[in-house]
Amino acid sequence: MSQNISMHLILLFVGIQVSFNQQIAQAQTPLAPPTTTKYTCPAQLKSSINAVINRPIFKRMRWGILVKPLSSPQTLYSREADKYFIPASNTKLFTTAAALQKLGANFRIRTSIYQDSEGVLRIVGRGDPSLKDEQLKILAKQLYQQGIRQINQLIADDSYFQGELVDPSWQWEDVQAYYGAPVNSLIINENASLLTLLPQKIDQPLQIKWNDPTEAYKWKIENTAVTVQENEPSFVEINRDLKGQTLRIKGQLAVNTKPEITALAVFDPVENFLIHFRHNLRKEGINVKQTSIGNAIKNDKEIAFVESPTLSDLLIETNVNSNNLYAESLLRNLANQQPLAKNETTADAGLKVLKTTLTELGIEPTNYILVDGSGLSRKNLISPEALVQLLQVMAKSSQAEIFRASLPIAGMSGSLKNRFINTPAQGIVQAKTGTMMGVVSLSGYVNAPNHEPVVFSMMVNQSEQPASIVRKAMDEIVVLLVQLKRC
Fold this sequence. Notes:
Layout: H1 7-14, H2 20-27, H3 42-53, E1 62-69, E2 77-79, H4 91-103, E3 110-115, E4 121-124, H5 133-145, E5 150-151, E6 154-157, H6 172-175, E7 192-198, E8 207-210, E9 220-223, E10 226-228, E11 235-240, E12 246-254, E13 260-265, H7 269-284, E14 287-288, E15 291-293, E16 301-307, H8 311-320, H9 324-335, H10 346-361, E17 368-369, E18 381-382, H11 384-396, H12 400-405, E19 429-436, E20 439-446, E21 454-461, H13 467-482
Parallel strand pairs: 4-6, 5-14, 6-15, 9-12, 10-12
Antiparallel strand pairs: 1-2, 1-21, 3-4, 3-16, 7-8, 7-13, 11-12, 17-18, 19-20, 20-21
Helix pairs in contact: 2-8, 3-13, 4-8, 4-9, 4-10, 5-7, 8-9, 9-10
């Protein structure tokens, strides 16, 4: 889970959205790999992989690796495959597999507006992570077309998900950033706000520009970041206080350099939702006199609604772009297929459904321990064995094609777009990445041209090396798998 803001998120905020259909087409149309004359015999694989991971630079870290044929119990390579590792975003493979199996590929998340006998309107969120201002505009138009010009009372019902907005095991530095945004029932613009810092004249403070101008009034800003000379390095650090009211901006940008763009998690997601919805209602010609936050009211009538894309589309955003908010929403939607137990959170109930669903698929429940759906928690523990078993099971399921299409393709899409370029792996490897401080993971499928398909999982923990160095070594190993040949 990189802390650098992705181009995908930037495009979402500026309104240039890449369609889900384009992503699906890309995922299902792999490039032909470059020609190669190198081969690896299965008998050579162990020594070849060991030559990579036993380099002195890697002596302090833990490696967990398992490589198997897709449709065979045979083991091609194993190293601490039954041990627990912190998986980072490889956790999303479990969440998305369970969601696909339990909810179905055509499942959609509905956001509704109800009206009671006294004319009170209530907007009910069910955790649609894809909801943007564009959908709020559609809701406002639906109300206008029904002759509504004034709303005396608008209630925001955020009660569909029960429990904390952020997992208590997530780190503070993560929950400040867009990738650690709070998870609630009424989500808008991925519960994040885009912030741009622009250099000015030398020695002057950086200019602060919000994508949503109303954000400027929500924060007390302490800006000590300045503009420096061209030959000086650029770096910016943004933090907020524990109460979420003060934003501290430190660092420097060289004069005439590109702006620094980042995104912050919103502090109060329901208030943020209401601000955006009232703005869209006002633009449509509907005045709102009073807003409040409340729970369900019985016997009211649905008068407007929007729905998310299908689950098969949501999975692509979850896995290809490793979107934490999407994963956490899917986990909670697993839970709401049945009533919550007393004092049970929606996330905990979702984890129970996840484990039950995967056990029914044949995944050994003692091979993993999960506390969230995204992998942002360091309390998650998964063995390479569990990930390989999951990938094998999903490849044989009726949902195999949809699940496979949700994974990044080497050198082509998502978190693998800039990896494996001009290597034999380009276009024929599909895998899920995972990164956090000291953790790097990669698990997926290899369609080796001269060998039967292979499934693999690699995880590194307790690493003091830059993630880029570990990724490069993992990529070397994946290329070895691509070059497998029956011999």
